[in-house]
């Protein structure tokens, strides 16, 4: 097996929103970055694609939002609560925000970030590349060993960033313990074409005491997010799908034609086993984990992508304040963790509260 060697200031593993954003910010400020992605392209399906005001503000700060809007996004006009096929409550956006969330296909967001990064000589993207080992010298991580297209390569770096998701290889290789937090439910995703007169909304219903949510998507689609009892999917799949689909149509009668055309079997749903997680530490020697690698969020509130991008934003600012990559100290990285951990802990607690109180939205006042 032929080996290749690279050297860079920062090696970022995972080209999702957090990793791609951080790679762009660093390379645009003359810090060399190698961005490693195990997939062959950036077009894999994501489920959480809604920006809130935090995510929007970050993109605007770095003059990315307007370009992203040209590629394609969709603002939600309102949030609606439905009962027996009719809307009974609406939540309108704050006048200063002007939306109740923004759907952005992640291939649009990632495509923009990578396109903006490519002209910089300090940026390099390695697709179809799987990290298999952390390089360590005198108790400090010095880079990674990876396999790309069957060939072994070594990346030496001053800092390693693990932005590789809830099943993070970097977290595992670094031996960072983490705690899974169960939420008592799993989630079924499906996507169907939106009726021609469908307005850009988030719509909620309660079916058998479980949350059913519809998220309008850019490009003329609706994403269905249906909570089911944790661990119930294997038994559910053994049953006929007809009663299940009938409940969806009863909740949202306008979708009858689209549902019948698009949902024929259980294979038309994708299962997400819902959990959040808390890592014991986000920082170890010259290594940092961010986004889902550090703190998986539940789907509630669609804040995962926004939280991940906030990690990248705060870490970038701290690195800039240090003056140079060689001056980024362990204390600087610990400050980053403390700032973000406090906010993430609060958000995760709020998610649990919202999940526990969702049914109260449907109690008549």
What descriptive keywords fit this protein?
365 residues; alpha+beta; FAD/NAD(P)-binding domain; D-Amino Acid Oxidase, Chain A, domain 2; 2 domains; eight-stranded mixed sheet; 10 helices; 20 strands; 32% strand; globular
Tell me the helix content: 25-40%
Radius of gyration: 22 Å
Shape: globular
Major beta sheet, specifics? 8 strands, mixed
The CATH homologous superfamily name of the largest domain equals FAD/NAD(P)-binding domain
Task: Provide the β-strand percentage band.
Answer: 25-35%
- Label the structural class: alpha+beta
CATH architecture tag of the largest domain: 3-Layer(bba) Sandwich
Low-confidence stretches: none
Which fold name corresponds to the CATH topology of the largest domain?
Answer: FAD/NAD(P)-binding domain
| Measured distance between first and last alpha carbons | 69 Å
CATH class of the largest domain: Alpha Beta
Average pLDDT number: 94
- Helical region count? 10
What would a concise description of this structure say?
The chain has 365 residues and is an alpha+beta fold. The chain contains ten helices and 20 strands. The longest helix is centred in the C-terminal third of the chain and has 28 residues.
What's the SSE blueprint?
Blueprint: E1 3-13, H1 17-27, E2 33-36, E3 50-51, H2 53-61, H3 65-71, E4 74-75, E5 78-83, E6 86-91, E7 102-103, H4 106-117, E8 123-126, E9 129-137, E10 140-148, E11 151-162, H5 169-173, E12 178-182, E13 185-193, E14 201-207, E15 210-217, E16 221-229, H6 233-237, H7 242-251, H8 256-262, E17 270-272, E18 275-279, E19 283-284, E20 287-289, H9 304-322, H10 330-357
Parallel strand pairs: 1-2, 1-11, 2-8, 5-14, 11-20
Antiparallel strand pairs: 3-7, 4-7, 5-6, 9-10, 10-11, 12-18, 13-16, 13-17, 14-15, 15-16, 19-20
Helix pairs in contact: 1-4, 1-9, 2-9, 9-10
């Amino acid at each position: 097996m032929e080996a290749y060697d690279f050297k860079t200031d920062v090696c970022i593993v995972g080209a999702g929103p957090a990793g791609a954003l951080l790679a762009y910010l660093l390379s645009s400020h003359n810090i060399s970055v190698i961005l490693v992605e195990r997939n062959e392209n950036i077009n894999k399906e994501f489920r959480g694609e809604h920006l809130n005001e935090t995510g929007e503000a970050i993109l605007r700060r770095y003059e990315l939002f307007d370009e992203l809007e040209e590629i394609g996004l969709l603002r939600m006009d309102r949030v609606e609560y439905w009962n027996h096929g009719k809307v009974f409550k609406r939540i309108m956006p704050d006048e200063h925000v002007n939306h109740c969330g923004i759907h952005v296909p992640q291939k649009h967001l990632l495509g923009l970030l990578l396109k903006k990064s490519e002209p910089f000589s300090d940026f390099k993207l390695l697709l179809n590349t799987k990290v298999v080992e952390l390089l360590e010298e005198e108790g400090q991580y010095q880079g990674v060993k990876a396999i790309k297209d069957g060939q072994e390569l070594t990346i030496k770096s001053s800092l390693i960033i693990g932005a590789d998701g809830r099943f993070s290889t970097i977290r595992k290789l670094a031996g960072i313990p983490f705690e899974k937090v169960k939420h008592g439910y799993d989630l079924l995703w499906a996507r169907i074409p939106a009726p021609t007169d469908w307005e850009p909304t988030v719509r909620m219903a309660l079916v058998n005491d479980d949350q059913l949510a519809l998220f309008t998507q850019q490009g003329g689609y609706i994403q269905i997010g249906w909570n089911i009892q944790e661990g119930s999917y294997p038994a559910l799949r053994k049953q006929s799908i007809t009663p299940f689909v009938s409940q969806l149509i009863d909740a949202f009668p306008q979708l009858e034609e689209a549902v019948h055309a698009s949902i024929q079997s259980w294979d038309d749903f994708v299962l997400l086993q819902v959990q959040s997680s808390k890592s014991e530490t986000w920082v170890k020697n010259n290594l940092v984990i961010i986004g889902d690698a550090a703190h998986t969020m539940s789907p509630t509130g669609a804040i995962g992508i926004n939280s991940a991008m906030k990690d990248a934003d705060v870490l970038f600012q701290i690195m800039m304040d240090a003056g140079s990559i060689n001056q980024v100290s362990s204390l600087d990285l610990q400050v980053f963790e403390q700032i973000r951990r406090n906010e993430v802990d609060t958000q995760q607690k709020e998610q649990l509260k919202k999940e526990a109180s969702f049914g109260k939205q449907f109690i008549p006042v």
